[in-house]
């Protein structure tokens, strides 16, 4: 179950239930148990019925009627130079923290 | 003759699955990083048909979400990216009890979703409901956490074998991997 269609299909998996939702919602819409049950059931149906590897099923659920949310994620065309500089500094900081944890885990 | 146009049910041109590989590559290039991340990529993909009805099957759950760790900074809901909340070894949890799993260590869409409902990324309660209704035979005794390690080598040589061993110990018939 996932929301990044191109990445999962590029890697290659036996079966894939794709939800065309913002990253972070592979198991259905937040605060919407009916959507979550529906999404899991679709995944189970893909598990049962896929005829072979790389079977992708796209959930018919829509995140919203307006698809413009898809234009925002990591889209440099929508960021100012100041915002880019800020994000670069923050990313460097996070990488250092993660490196520290990794090294500690390897000890 | 005039063009009849796309019709009232046509979707907009941008209404396609987001091309994440392109977006992420151009994003990090713009941040000043050189070589783009190389995603794992396989021509041959394994496939094993389910060998018994789902209603008789034991189903496992694998997640990339992380257990909440109070000492590791803001983990949301709505936290900025938190590299400190990442985990680098496989972990497991009892599926009979509830768990507080977070996704602040993952590059999810912080603009358009809030990470306020773990059921949207960790469907253990939904899986329990599927077992209660008889849709699946049973939920595996444990779920497993898959580290989101950038290293293909560590994923392939360390984390995947460990996940597989734990799934075999649990005697599951199939696993659902939920990638946040």
Number of helices of chain A: 3
User: What is the overall shape of chain B?
Assistant: globular
Unreliable residue stretches of chain A: none
SSE pattern of chain A, N- to C-terminal: HEHEH
Instruction: Report on the biggest sheet of chain A.
Output: 2 strands, parallel
The total beta strand count of chain B reads: 7
Q: Find the count of extended strands of chain A (DSSP E, 2+ residues).
A: 2
- Contiguous helical run count of chain B: 3
Radius of gyration of chain B (Å): 20 Å
Outline of chain A: extended
Give the mean pLDDT of chain B. 94
Structural Rg of chain A: 18 Å
Proportion of strand residues of chain A? 5-15%
Number of domains of chain A: 2
| Helical residue percent band of chain B | 10-25%
Termini gap of chain B:
49 Å
Give the SSE map.
The complex is a heterodimer of chains A (107) and B (180).
Chain A (H helix, E strand, L loop, with lengths): L4 H7 L3 E4 L14 H17 L5 E4 L22 H26 L1
Parallel strand pairs in A: 1-2
Chain B lengths: L19 H11 L27 E6 L2 E2 L23 E4 L6 E2 L21 H9 L5 E2 L2 E4 L6 H18 L4 E5 L2
Parallel strand pairs in B: 1-5, 1-6, 1-7
Antiparallel strand pairs in B: 2-4, 3-6
Give an account of the 3D structure.
- The complex is a heterodimer of chains A (107) and B (180).
- With 107 residues, chain A is mainly alpha-helical.
- Chain A is 47% helix and 7% strand.
- Chain A contains three helices and two strands, in the order αβαβα.
- A two-stranded parallel ribbon of chain A has the order 1-2.
- The longest helix of chain A has 26 residues, at 81-106.
- The radius of gyration of chain A is 18 Å and the shape is extended.
- The mean pLDDT of chain A is 94.
- Chain B is α/β, with parallel strands linked by helices and 180 residues long.
- Chain B has a domain at 54-178.
- Chain B has three helices and seven strands.
- In chain B, strands 1, 3, 5, 6 and 7 form a five-stranded mixed β-sheet that branches. In chain B, strands 2-4 form a two-stranded antiparallel sheet.
- Chain B is globular, with a radius of gyration of 20 Å.
- The mean pLDDT of chain B is 94.
- At the A-B interface, α1, α2 and α3 of A face α1, α2 and β7 of B.
């Amino acid at each position: 179950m996932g929301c990044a269609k191109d990445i999962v299909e590029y890697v290659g998996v036996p079966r894939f239930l794709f939800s065309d939702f913002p990253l972070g919602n592979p198991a259905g819409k937040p605060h919407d148990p009916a959507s979550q049950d529906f999404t899991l059931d679709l995944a189970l149906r893909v598990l049962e019925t896929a005829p072979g590897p790389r079977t992708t099923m796209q959930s018919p659920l829509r995140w919203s009627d307006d698809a413009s949310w898809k234009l925002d994620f990591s889209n440099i065309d929508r960021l100012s130079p100041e915002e880019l500089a800020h994000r670069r500094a923050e990313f460097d900081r996070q990488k250092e923290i993660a490196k520290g944890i990794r090294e500690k885990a390897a000890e | 003759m005039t063009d009849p146009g796309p019709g009232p049910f046509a979707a907009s041109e941008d209404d396609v699955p987001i091309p994440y590989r392109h977006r992420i590559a151009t994003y990090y290039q713009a941040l000043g990083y050189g070589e783009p991340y190389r995603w794992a990529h396989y021509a041959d993909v394994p496939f094993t048909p389910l060998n018994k009805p789902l209603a008789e099957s034991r189903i496992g759950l694998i997640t990339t979400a992380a257990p909440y760790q109070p000492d590791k900074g803001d983990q949301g809901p709505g936290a900025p990216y938190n590299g400190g909340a990442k985990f680098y070894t496989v972990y497991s949890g009892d599926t009979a009890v509830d768990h507080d799993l977070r996704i602040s260590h993952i590059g999810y869409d912080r603009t358009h979703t809030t990470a306020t409902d773990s059921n949207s990324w960790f469907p253990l309660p939904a899986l329990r409901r599927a077992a209660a209704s008889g849709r699946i035979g049973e939920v595996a005794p444990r779920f497993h956490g898959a580290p989101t390690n950038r290293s293909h080598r560590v994923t392939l040589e360390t984390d995947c074998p460990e996940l597989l061993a734990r799934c075999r110990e649990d005697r599951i018939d199939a696993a659902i991997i939920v990638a946040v």
